[in-house]
Amino acid sequence: SQTIHQWPATLVQPVGSPLSLECTVEGTSNPNLYWYRQAAGRGLQLLFYSVGIGQISSEVPQNLSASRPQDRQFILSSKKLLLSDSGFYLCAWSLGHGYGYTFGSGTRLTVV
Amino acid sequence: AQSVTQLDSHVSVSEGTPVLLRCNYSSSYSPSLFWYVQHPNKGLQLLLKYTSAATLVKGINGFEAEFKKSETSFHLTKPSAHMSDAAEYFCVVTHTNAGKSTFGDGTTLTVKP
């Protein structure tokens, strides 16, 4: 069966510090991978998606970046965090846009 | 272009009474539609999906939704609410040609004892 792992579960980082969130998928090959952000009391905002190794599409201009160094690994990064980067970050995978997503358990990021 | 509107930001029901969470969509193509549930500080879990087969879709935990093309709606229902149903619910529309999915803003369901 397919599983998705996302870590850490919670993270408190000072403004200006770097960020690295990792997501891995098991049990499937060549999945579409996604990073979403959910601000408090709000819906989901698509940040990045990837349809293959090294292929990253950015949806929102910001100081975040994403990389896909391996088929089932998706990393969200920042060189310098801003207060506005606080939120709940969700990784997800899908076989395609019509198949629905499987989400990770999320990372609660608080920038202080 | 595609969009989705969840008509109620908050719904409150008593335990044992029916649940209705409303979702309207627009899409330039024949859409796929999904409902997800999110419990506090958790990821989203797929409840059910419509992908052009039967218009009445049954999902997990007793939920179901009916695709009504004439009304461009995909409302989520459950005959009898349980305390564990209290959560955030998201309606999602997608199509392969659209390149991505569009999430509604969510509906918070409160279940009173």
Report on this structure.
The complex is a heterodimer of chains A (112) and B (113). Chain A starts with a strand and ends with a strand. The mean pLDDT of chain A is 92. Chain A contains no helices and 11 strands. With 112 residues, chain A is mainly beta. In chain A, 37% of the residues are buried. Chain A is globular, with a radius of gyration of 13 Å. Chain A has strands at 3-7, 10-13, 19-26, 32-38, 44-52, 55-58, 64-70, 73-78, 87-94, 102-103, 107-111. Chain B is mainly β and 113 residues long. Chain B is built from no helices and 12 strands. Chain B has strands spanning 2-6, 10-14, 19-21, 23-27, 32-38, 44-50, 56-58, 64-68, 73-78, 87-94, 101-103, 107-112. In chain B, strands 2, 5, 6, 10, 11 and 12 form a 6-stranded mixed sheet that branches. In chain B, strands 3-9-8-7 form a 4-stranded antiparallel sheet, with no helix packed on it. A two-stranded antiparallel ribbon of chain B has the order 1-4. The model of chain B has no long low-confidence stretch (mean pLDDT 92).
Overall geometry of chain A comes to globular
What distance separates the N and C termini of chain A?
38 Å
User: Quick check: average pLDDT of chain B?
Assistant: 92
End-to-end gap of chain B: 42 Å
Assembly type of the chains comes to heterodimer
* Low-pLDDT stretches of chain B: none
Strand content of chain B: over 45%
- Could you tell me the radius of gyration of chain A in angstroms? 13 Å
Helix-strand sequence of chain B: EEEEEEEEEEEE
